[in-house]
Design brief:
six-stranded mixed β-sheet, 25 strands, Collagenase (Catalytic Domain), Jelly Rolls, 30% strand, single chain, 2 domains, mainly beta
Amino acid sequence: MFYQLLFLSILGCLSSIIFGEEDSKIINKRAILKRHVYNYSTNINYWYEGSKIEAIDTAVKHLSQYTCLEFRKRSKKLTKRGLIFEIFDFKQIIDNLDKNEPSIVRLDGDCAEDVGCVKHMLALALGLIPHHNRWDRDKYVTVNKKNINDDFKMSYNKVKGTRVRILNTAFDFGSITNYDPFETSKKNLTRTYKSKLNPLYNKMLGQRHEFSHNDLKLLNDFYCGKSCAKKLKGCRNGGFQDPNQCNACRCPLGYDGKYCDKIKKTDYECGKRFYEATKGYQTFAVNGTKICNYFIQSPPGTKVELHVVDAYVRREPRKCVENFGIEIKNRHDRGTSGLVLCGRNKNVTIKGVFSQVLIHYIGFDNTDYATFKYRAVKRKNTKSFSYDN
């Protein structure tokens, strides 16, 4: 189920899909490579032929709920700027923005029935890009060029920092824009890219479930700058001003409050929410059907080292995705997807990155459980990532 993305120019974090250097300029504030011809407005018309296609209507409806974008389904085929969805033999995006004509989003039969796949294509059509195209991708993933199908080698090119700057968002393993590492590989048998941070992130790449928090943050940053008459300053932990509720920040999973400066309260049965890491190991456990947030803090000059002693959370989606498992946020950008563990995981050691770790546990069944061990370590003594397969 290969797809082709025609004329997609690669951007560090967000792209406006360009055709030539002479028509573009770098907007550092928004981390966007932008043409003189403006991208879509906040009101986007769309059309498809034939009877109702539930996946398309649901995908655009969900994105409208998360952003300032309003999608308007038209009864007649578009002739000006907008999106035309077509059922085709393969997936493809044909950008016609510079012609003031509708862009074409082609979906194969399977994709047209999958809301997550449509969301993936919609995100790309609106300008987001897979994170393996970021100019800084080599810090996070290894691209195995010899494994890439010849038809898709250009889809793995990256843009250098001289052409675009990446601000405020880190490499996101949970972005809905990311390619499945096997989908564009030779014979679908070998990975085209894999995580450098740790191998468990590989289970997140290519998820087709939902937009990540930073996917929405980038779209809102690009399209929704004028949605709120008054700018709300002070959003913390990767939050951003909610364009549909201008007096509050939209928070990443696990955070709450007007400025996303609080840990979200969860089920009473979860027990203690806040833990202070010390030099010696401490342990806590959770089990059963419940939603829990746990926050671990270590003293200044130290980092939190976390061990997942043993955990099992029933796995539903094909990939490990947010809200289906145990998410561990230990990176500096709290808006980016944390490491999501699903299924059985044992003896996972997560190296210290800085002095805070947030754990979001979702148990779907009485048999779900997790046991954690943690301690504070000096910065120079942090261990590398390891786990038992």
